Amino acid sequence: MEQPKRKYRSSVQLQFAAYFAVLTIVLLALLNTYPLRASRDVVFSEKESSLMNRASVVSSSLALLDQITADNTRQVIGLLDVNNLDRVLVTDEAGKAIYDTAEGGEIPNEIARALKGEAVFTSKFDMEAFQSGAAVPVRSGGKTIGTVYIAEYDAEQAAIIVGIQHRLSTISITVALLALVIIFFSIRMMTRRITQLADGVRTVQSGDYSFRLELSGNDELTELGSELNHLTERLETTEAQRRQFVSDASHELKTPLASIRLLSDSIVQDTDMDSATMREFVTDIGTEAERLQRTTEKLLNLSRRDDGVQGELQNVDLRKAVEGTHRLLAPLAEASHITIHSQLDEGCFVRATEDDIYHIVFNLVENAIKYNLATGSVTVKVFREADKCLLTVEDTGIGIPEQDQPNIFGRFYRVDKARSREHGGSGLGLSIVHDAVTLYGGTIAVESVEPHGSKFTVTFPAAESESIESESAE
Ligand SMILES: Nc1ncnc2c1ncn2[C@@H]1O[C@H](COP(=O)(O)OP(=O)(O)OP(=O)(O)O)[C@@H](O)[C@H]1O
Ligand SMILES: [Mg+2]
User: Fold this and answer.
1) Ligand 1 within 6 A of 137 CB?
2) What is the pTM (predicted TM-score) of this model?
3) In angstroms, rounded to a whole number, what is the distance separating the alpha carbons of residues 289 and 163?
4) If you take atom 20 of ligand 1, which residue's CA is the nearest one?
């Protein structure tokens, strides 16, 4: 149990940590490189335009001379504002230095390209300074008579950029540390809650359906926790119902079996039993066996219905179904001197299986006879109301106490056990009726005023006509 728990926790933590780490690294990398590059590029282009301009001014001033010599070059340059440049180099058309403020300095490569007529600019930034150079040809009468090269070493702007970079690095480190702390705590909090959920699922899985998660917050994890609580609640109810059902069913089967056992033992042990008594005992055994058979048939009916519709769906005529059950129940009604009245409208069709409609009508009318008073009556009505088909079964019987009314559709529930048993009842009839009615989208309601009788009203969605072709239920 412990092993998967740890594995689960660490993998979620690792995943989150990896996502956040990648995100932080990308953000910090961008923060540290992009502004630096952008400001460096701005300085480069500002340097290019300024140096190229100044080199061009020197070049056009020299182009006015007939011939470039060291003397006249010095004079021309003396008139121009070039003092703040680090190097001014003037060459002749062969690339030989005529004037150079950095005496003995190397001839830069740019000169060769300028001699070919190109205006060349180069600049580099090495964290200490911007070293920039511009070389332009000196052209006179359509000929290149020399070149001008100027260079600048700018440590000030470099210092500003380096300063910005330092500040960005400090901010980045602070942000990274802050993000690390926040990430650590949020991941811990989230994984703790996920672990709580997982522990909850494990507890429920182990069979403790009374377990409920304590919920706080208002996010998706809370929603998930609340769904788990609902699920557990349903499992708890279902489990309680299952236990109750098994216990009720065993009890229901136990009683007739015990009677059969007792009666058969009596026959076996009493060797002198006269044939009349023996006949009576065997008849009782038969009655109990019949009760067992009825109960098991009803249990089977209920368990099959749990799997959905069983059989062929058709548009069943409620009127015909009621007439059919009347014929079957007439002997039972006659025996108790009960009259059955019916008012059955035509055109009330319900999309269902014939068997289920038969069970619904039969159980309701049978109850109305069984729980009636001698010489009482039962009234069955079938009629349409808008897009609904209604079936009402009303009796003048003993009625159902108000506190029992919500329970009578439960399995094995009987208001008066003794009276129900007298009629061989098992308390499953209304349960079957309720499940079948619900299966076809209908509702069932009971009204009863003790001791004036009961009225059951079943409402079904009406099927349009008899002619719809029947289809097989899956
Ligand atoms: N019309 C009625 N009048 C008075 N009580 C009723 C009526 N219908 C049902 N009941 C009460 O509701 C209980 C449940 O009825 P239900 O039909 O489920 O079981 P049952 O008739 O006892 O047995 P079964 O129908 O399985 O043979 C009955 O035991 C009875 O107490
Ligand atoms: Mg019944």
Assistant:
1) no
2) 0.61
3) 101
4) 427
Residues recorded for the chain: 474
Locate 265 and state its tokens.
Answer: 């033992």
Q: Let me know: does 425 contact 463? Beta carbons within 8 Å.
A: no
338 lines ligand 1 (CB under 6 A): no
Q: What is the number of the ligand 1 atom nearest to the C-alpha of 417? A: 29
CB count within 10 Å of CB 38 equals 9
* Distance between CA atoms of residues 210 and 212, nearest Å: 6
Which residue in this structure is represented by tokens 């009621």? 322
User: Using a 6 Å cutoff on CB, does residue 368 contact ligand 1?
Assistant: yes
Of all protein residues, the one whose alpha carbon is nearest to atom 27 of ligand 1 is 425
Q: What is the pLDDT of residues 25-80, one digit of tens each?
A: 888 888 888 888 999 999 999 999 999 999 999 999 999 887 888 899 999 988 88
Q: Which domains does the chain have, with CATH numbers?
A: 2-161 (3.30.450.20), 220-302 (1.10.287.130), 309-467 (3.30.565.10)
| Contact by Cβ (8 Å): 73, 64 | no
Q: What is the pLDDT of residues 109-120, one digit of tens each?
A: 999 999 999 999
- Residue 217 zone, left/alpha/beta (φ > 0; ψ -120 to 50; rest): left
Residue 376 CB less than 6 A away from ligand 1: no
Q: Whose CA is closest to 122, among 114, 138, 36?
A: 114
